[in-house]
Each structure stands twice: as structure tokens, then as C-alpha cells.
């Protein structure tokens, strides 16, 4: 760490232009001060963090119990999980159910409330979501305490911006797997790399995207150990589920038939076209979500898929071209990858923000990260996501001016965050100078 006292020996060597920017004791003295610097310097007391977690999560639980905000019914998704739970109890994945669009590992999360038989399914599911949330906060706090960072504060204060939605979706549990995987991959031992890879592999079997946490593993031994463990864990989990349940891969057909969800970037473009009278389509409830139906929808879906392929190609190119690797690079790369795949998706459900907040928080546990401004963009994006659903969702469906405005702002922030993340990742690892 640098300081502002020239009489204090020894002096740090001059910057070469290829090193990550140094931090100073005060964010205002930093030569890279941005509006996001406040989240990276200092470490708040754990008691304050725990108190904030309890207060905010208590508020989220109260909102879920009332569940009347906006269109209401956020907790109905847990009823659907309960329905699937009954089918798993009969030894089968949901047969022919178009709303089942998840990898087979998701079944374990759906069945997990059964370990708390003294609670109702709803109560047990929420309790386990809170437990996963607390595990994330504790893991981030542990990393923060060693590095004087504020990733845990970002998570604890950022998640409530989504109101009570995180407690009624299984994305917090999935995010916990990804967060723990990334933190484990930062270790030096083979066991740590294998643990991180195994968690990422299990996460991929739960909701696919956690496999992207391995995109930035350092070349050589770490990559080999992590990816091998990920493949072994994923195959072992799939084989186990296939042994005890029928139809574990049925989700592939349902997922392939998805259209353009109204919250996606493509959906926002169609909403604008519909509002101006340039597009005659409509909104329908299909595959468990509201999607646009009409001319050019298929073409926009293919374009979204093409953009996803281009994003994947860019990530491969980045990995081949990267020359500088810092402790933050694996974290920044994982965050960037998930941002790119989210922004180009045909479906941007509000719970996707849970993933992004978790990965941003992990980035902020490392002082070398270049993702601070990107993380800051996610906070208003999360607030707008909860405004879109559930608060104003009826207007988003109807395509009113207010509903469209909220979606345009939210998606513009997500797109800006994805492009900024890609630029900063490339600049910090590939380009000849660091901005």
C-alpha cells in the first residue's frame, strides 16, 4: 500500500503502466478514485454487518408474508416447487411440464425442504434460502476481513433491493455455490482448486451458469485441477439422479422452445416497436412466463442466440490473449461472463440479478478488481428490477409508457454494465496499458 509521506522509507517503485492501480489509505487520495471506491476501502464491524443482515432480511420476510406489493403473488413460485416436490417423491422429474426448464441438479434444491419436516414446505424453503444467504454473507465477510474490502456489505445491502423475491426463488442457493466456488479457487492448494471446481460443476447441474465461474482460472495446474473436478462432480451428480429418477434431461426440450420474455433486451425492443405501432404482436403467458408472440419474434430469438455465441467467442479470445493475471482476474472474468450471457439472453428474469449481485460482491473482496464501477451500476439496476416486478409488472405487461420506461432504464444499465465489464477486463489483462 502506498502512503503520502515522502520521508517514510522505503519508497515504492515507479508505476510501469502494467500494474493494477494502487490504493491509498483514503479513497479520496487514490489516483483512480471513482464513485464506487467507497465499497473497497475499510472494513465495517461484523456486529454492524450482522445487524444489518437481520434487519433487512426481517423486512424481506415480512414483505413475503404479506405478498401484496404490486401485482402480488411472488411466493406462488414456491407453490410450484411444492408441486414438483410431490413428483420427485414419486421418483420422476416433472413429465411433460413446460414450466420445468432447469437442469436435473435443481431437483435437489426443490427436494431440500424435506430435510425440515417439522416445517411446511413454504417455511422450510424460505428458511433454507435465508441460510444460503447467510452463508454467502459469512464467506464474503471472511474474505473481506483478510483484505480490508467491502464485498459482504455490497451483498447484504444490495440483495434487499430485490425486495422479497430472493426468498421465493432458488437462485440464492445457486449463487451460494458460485460464490463459494470462486472463493475456493482463490486458494493455493490443489484441494482448494478441486473444491472450487466441484462446487462449480454442481452449480452447473443446478442452473448452468455457475460453470462460467471457471472461465478465468489461471492457466496450467489450477485450470486442470478445477475443470477436472467440475466435470467429475457434474457427471457423478447426473448419474446419481438418473439412477434414482426418470426423465432428468426432459428440461432440454422445454428450454429450447422458449420465446422472447418481456423483461429481456429483445422484449424491450418489441415493446418500443409495439408502442409506436410498428409491430402488431402481443403478450402471452407461455412456458411459465410472459412472452411476446408475433412476427419477427423468432428472428429476434435467433439474434439473441447469435449474440450469446459471439459473447462466448469473445471470452475464448480474451482467455487466449490475456497476459496479466492478478488475484482478481478469475473473479472479474466470471462476473463479466455471466453479465454478457445475461444481457444477451432471451430471458432476463428479475432473479437473475441475484447472480450478478453475488458475483459483483465476490469481485469486491479483492483489492485488485477492476469491476467497482460495474458493480455500482448493478445497484440501480436491481432497484429497477423490483420496480418492474412485482411493483409495476401489470404496466410492463400492458406496455404502458411507465412500464416501458422502467424496462428501458433497467436493461440499459445491464447492457452498459456488460460492455463496461468486458472493456475493463480486456484492458486490465490484455491491453498494453491499464486505464
TrEMBL record:
Keyword Membrane: yes
Superkingdom as given in the UniProt entry: Bacteria
Transmembrane segment boundaries: 118-140, 152-170, 190-215, 227-245, 296-318, 374-392, 404-422
Membrane topology, as annotated: Multi-pass membrane protein
Region (Disordered): 1-26
Location in the cell: Cell membrane
InterPro entries: GT87
Keyword vocabulary terms for this entry: Cell membrane, Membrane, Transferase, Transmembrane, Transmembrane helix
Protein family per UniProt: Belongs to the glycosyltransferase 87 family.
Protein name: Glycosyltransferase 87 family protein
Amino acid at each position: 500500500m502506498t502512503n503520502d509521506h515522502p520521508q517514510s522509507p522505503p519508497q515504492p517503485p515507479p508505476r510501469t503502466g502494467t500494474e493494477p492501480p494502487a490504493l491509498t489509505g483514503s479513497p479520496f487520495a487514490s489516483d483512480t478514485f471513482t464513485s464506487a471506491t467507497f465499497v473497497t476501502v475499510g472494513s465495517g464491524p461484523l456486529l454492524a454487518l450482522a445487524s444489518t443482515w437481520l434487519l433487512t432480511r426481517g423486512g424481506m420476510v415480512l414483505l413475503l408474508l404479506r405478498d401484496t406489493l404490486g401485482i402480488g403473488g411472488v411466493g406462488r413460485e414456491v407453490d410450484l416447487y411444492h408441486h414438483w416436490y410431490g413428483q420427485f417423491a414419486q421418483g420422476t422429474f416433472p413429465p411433460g411440464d413446460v414450466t420445468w426448464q432447469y437442469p436435473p441438479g435443481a431437483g435437489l434444491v426443490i427436494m431440500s425442504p424435506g430435510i425440515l419436516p417439522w416445517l411446511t414446505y413454504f417455511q422450510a424453503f424460505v428458511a433454507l434460502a435465508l441460510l444460503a444467504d447467510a452463508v454467502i454473507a459469512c464467506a464474503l465477510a471472511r474474505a473481506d476481513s483478510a483484505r480490508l474490502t467491502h464485498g459482504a456489505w455490497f451483498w447484504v445491502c444490495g440483495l434487499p433491493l430485490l425486495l422479497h423475491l430472493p426468498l421465493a426463488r432458488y437462485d440464492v442457493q445457486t449463487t451460494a455455490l458460485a460464490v463459494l466456488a470462486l472463493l475456493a479457487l482463490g486458494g493455493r492448494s490443489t484441494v482448494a482448486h478441486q473444491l472450487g471446481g466441484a462446487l462449480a460443476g454442481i452449480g452447473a447441474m443446478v442452473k448452468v451458469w455457475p460453470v462460467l465461474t471457471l472461465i478465468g482460472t489461471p492457466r496450467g495446474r489450477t485450470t486442470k485441477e478445477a475443470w477436472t473436478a467440475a466435470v467429475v462432480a457434474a457427471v457423478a451428480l447426473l448419474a446419481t439422479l438418473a439412477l434414482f429418477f426418470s426423465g432428468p434431461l426432459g428440461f432440454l426440450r422445454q428450454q429450447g422452445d422458449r420465446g422472447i420474455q418481456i423483461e429481456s433486451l429483445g422484449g424491450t425492443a418489441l415493446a418500443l416497436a409495439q408502442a409506436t405501432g410498428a409491430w402488431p404482436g402481443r403478450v402471452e403467458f407461455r412456458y411459465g412466463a410472459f412472452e411476446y408472440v408475433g412476427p419477427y419474434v423468432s428472428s429476434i430469438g435467433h439474434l439473441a442466440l447469435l449474440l450469446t455465441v459471439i459473447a462466448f467467442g469473445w471470452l475464448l479470445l480474451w482467455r487466449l490473449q490475456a497476459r496479466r493475471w492478478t488475484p482478481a482476474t478469475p473473479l472479474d472474468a466470471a462476473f463479466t461472463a455471466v453479465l454478457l450471457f445475461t444481457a444477451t439472453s432471451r430471458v432476463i428474469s428479475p432473479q437473475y440479478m441475484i447472480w450478478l449481485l453475488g458475483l459483483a460482491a465476490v469481485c469486491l473482496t479483492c483489492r485488485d478488481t477492476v469491476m467497482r464501477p460495474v458493480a455500482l451500476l448493478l445497484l440501480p439496476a436491481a432497484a429497477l428490477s423490483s420496480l418492474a416486478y412485482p411493483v409495476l409488472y401489470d404496466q410492463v405487461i400492458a406496455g404502458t409508457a411507465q412500464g416501458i420506461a422502467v424496462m428501458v432504464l433497467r436493461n440499459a444499465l445491464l447492457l452498459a454494465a456488460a460492455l463496461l465489464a468486458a472493456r475493463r477486463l480486456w484492458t486490465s489483462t490484455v491491453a498494453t496499458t491499464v486505464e
